[in-house]
Amino acid sequence: MASIDTEAIVLRTIRFSEADVVLAFYSPDQGRFSAIAKGARKSGSKLGGRLQPGVWIHVGVARGRGDLGTVRSASTIQAHAGLWQEGYRLRAAGSVLETVLRSVPEHEAMPEIFYLLARTLGLLAVAVPLPGPPRLDPVVLGFQAKILVVSGLLPRLASCASCGSPGPLVAFSAHAGGMLCDSCASAGEPLDGAARNAFAGLVGHPLADAREVCPPGARVGVERMIGLVLKEHLGVTLRSAMPL
Ligand SMILES: [Zn+2]
C-alpha cells in the first residue's frame, strides 16, 4: 500500500456519510488530490477540526488499490484562523480555493501553485475588508492572474493579439489571445485601459501590492478578463464569479 506524507492545503470538504468526509487537497509534491477522512464528523475526532478549507496541514494518507486514499494523520502547520473571523475574508478565500479546484488539473504537482496559494490565504487571513464583493478583492484577482501565468494562459496585454499593433488597445478577446487594437476590436468586446493596466500590474507585482495596482474601477474588468480566459481555454466558469 503506497502512502503519501506531505504538506497540503485543504481546498474543500464534502460530507460523504454520517461520519466520513471526502477532502480535496493541494500539495507541493502531489498537486491536487482527494482522500477520505473516516470518522472526521464524529464529535471528538482528532482529524475533524484540522480538516477545514484553507487550513495548511501536514497530512498522512494511506492509498489502497483505488484512487481515493484514507487520511491517517493530520497536524496543523498554519490554521489561517483569521479567515473565520470575518465573513469577507472567508468568502474571498472561497473564491481562491474554487479557482484551484476548477482550473488546476489533478495529480500534477506544481509547487509554485502551492506556495502562491499559501501566500494568498495568509494575506486574506489578515486582510481589511474592502467595499464591494470579496471576489473582487485585488488579492483574489492577483492570485487568479498569477494562476493564468503558471498555467501558460496569460493573455497578450502589450500589443494587439490579432495584428501586433502597439495600439491604442481598446478591446479584449480570449479567443484571439488578448487585447485588440481599434482595427481588430470587432473580434472582441470593449475593455478599457484601466482594466488592462491593473491586470498587467497584478501579474507583475507581488500579491502584497495587489490592492495598490488594482484600483476599484478596474476590478470588474479584470475579473471579466480572467473569466473569459478560463472559459475559452479550460471551459471553466467559476461559480463564485459574476456570470459571463
Ligand atoms: Zn489589431
Task: Write structural notes for this entry.
This protein is of the alpha+beta class. It folds into two domains: 3-79, Nucleic acid-binding proteins (OB fold (Dihydrolipoamide Acetyltransferase, E2P)); 82-234, Up-down Bundle (de novo design (two linked rop proteins)). It is built from six helices and eight strands; from the N terminus they run E-E-E-E-E-H-H-H-E-E-E-H-H-H. Strand 2 (21-27) and strand 3 form a beta hairpin. The mean pLDDT is 93. Bound molecules: zinc ion (ZN). The site of zinc ion has 8 residues, from strand 7.
Topology of this protein?
Blueprint: E1 3-15, E2 21-27, E3 31-37, E4 56-62, E5 69-78, H1 87-103, H2 111-124, H3 138-150, E6 169-173, E7 178-181, E8 189-190, H4 193-204, H5 210-213, H6 219-234
Parallel strand pairs: 3-5
Antiparallel strand pairs: 1-2, 1-4, 2-3, 4-5, 6-7, 6-8
Helix pairs in contact: 1-2, 1-3, 2-3, 3-6, 4-6
The protein binds zinc ion.
Residues 160, 162-163, 165, 180-181, 183-184 line the site of zinc ion.
